[in-house]
Request: fold
Amino acid sequence: MAKSKLEGRKVTFHDMCLRDGMHAKREQISVEQMVEIATALDRANVPMLQVTHGAGLGGNSIQHGRALATNAEYISAVVEKMTQATVSVLLIPGLGTMDELDEAYAAGARSVHVATHSTEADTSPQHIAHARKLGMDTTGFLMMAHLNDAAGLVEQGKLMESYGAQTIYVTDSAGYMLTDDVTDAITRLRDALNPETEIGFHGHHNLGLGVANSIAAIAAGASRIDASVAGLGAGAGNAPLEVLAAVCDRMGIVSGVDTFALMDIAEDIIVPLMDHIVRVDRESLTLGFAGVYSTFLLPAKRASARFGVPARDILIELGKQKMIGGQEDMIQDTAMTMARERGLLDAAE
Amino acid sequence: MKKIKCALIGSGNIGTDLIYKIRRSEVLEPVWMVGIDADSEGLKRARDMGLKTTAEGVDGLLPHVQADDIQIAFDATSAYVHAENSRKLNALGVLMIDLTPAAIGPLCVPPVNLREHADKLEMNVNMISCAGQATIPIISAVSSVQPVAYAEIIASLASKSVGPGTRANLDEFTYTTSNALVKVGGARTGKALAIINPAEPPMIMRNTIYCETDDTPDQAAITASVLAMITEVQKYVPGYRLVNGPIFEGNLVSVFMEVAGLGDYLPTYAGNLDIMTAAATRTAEMFASEILAGNLTLKPVEAA
Reply:
């Protein structure tokens, strides 16, 4: 009897713990830790892993936090130890530049997620074309996908495809999408994009749907899935890779990864290095419920501690104002404005 | 009163908004608009507003420069064609105000260094970017109090206010603005970040300025300097407003600004458009006043 109707379907997993996971560690993963984790992932036959500052190339900043090393230092240290895995980077135009992509390529990165907000794909043509010129495996990554409808995502995905992107991702940065939303978006993209263009899905686990949404994406035609061992990522984390791998094994979906090895990495390496247990808690659930960028979690908690406004209130307000990825400065700004309105801040401040 | 006649090159958002700003000036008069598509909305609007237009690019304007006594041109095209536009017009003695990120001329932020450029009789001055115009005055206000090791700015722009040229060339925006935080703002190093937000109704342009000072910041002096600078910018951009800060944490100074526009061409949320066109207009006015007062005579620039 078939294991599932998806038996035999092939999928490429792309691990995010050394990029999205940087957010959960406030960018404080050392080069040595990165090499240890990446080496273990490579050994577990994970085919792709992303290595950069949480905000990608150009991410080292006051806005996004300063990492312990430069992106080039992280990438070259990891690449040197890889036996089969491809190392990728994140590039958000407006933050990262083509110069920084050149540096990442020189350090050994061979794949890139070129990321824009889900309605702003036309800010990416230079970067996508440049990545292709370098010969990199090039993905167009539509962030905060819940802020566009399926028809809009198709239009934006086709733009990125026209610039040269070989894979188009639906990126649920807020962990807000319901399973039917994922099915609808991926199905429409699969119909509209060229047959050789791959489709990917990047989930966050804020509503506990990371694994279910990833499976729905595969069922609708996605062949690349971002996930993270032990879910180490922003908000309640990404889809936990070892869980997704186990479900895929049960369903007969072919990924080629060693599920037991991933379970060991999660338990023995990732969980012990977490500063807080990455899980669905009051604030990360708020992200998924209100449609807020997952990375806002920790800065909102810090602003809450500084200005005395509950983090959940700040996050809900940011959701109302439709703040998007990259607007981390507006967390402190919003917290200050709310604190003043509540009489918690001296009007002169 | 006599006015200095101006040409506008580029018929997109910026060029169109400039018509409104220049028409209001006591020393400038918009005469020509240059585009590349005869059917473009910008050229049609310019014709309706009484400007002469050409769809032949800068070459369509050159034969009329002398007859129509054009002395100042504003370039709102792209960094790629600006150098050629500037060379051709400078050769005819036309002063160029550059609103592209080309930055071949000295960088100008009116309340910081405009006087200096007028004194040097520059023939090409660059207006950097909207984010630069909105944030460099604040960095300069901090760096004039004490040394700034690093300045970082985040500009959030409403999606509807960002035209195709900026979108397709975001890196030029990033490089030019980052460089100007240092060259004009006075920080030792700098970094500029841009965010394009599609929220409806559109968000008003926001700018956050972070400065890291070498030594413990002098809070009272910095606050006074920042507030004084905001008043200076408000003279030409009335919607330039402090939302939060300056707030201090260790050596970090943070200032949160908002820029509402006058609503000339695009609605008031597009403060990014206004601060650019208002700064360019103010810059041109300074030169025009000098010309009218007989202190400045523009001369053709020999091609190198």
Summary: The CA atoms of residues 219 and 248 of chain B lie 7 Å apart. Chain B has two domains: 4-127+277-292, 130-270. The interface with chain A takes residues 150, 152, 154, 156, 159, 164, 167-171, 173-175, 191, 193-200, 203, 206, 208, 210, 212, 243-245, 247, 252, 254, 256 of chain B (CB under 8 Å).
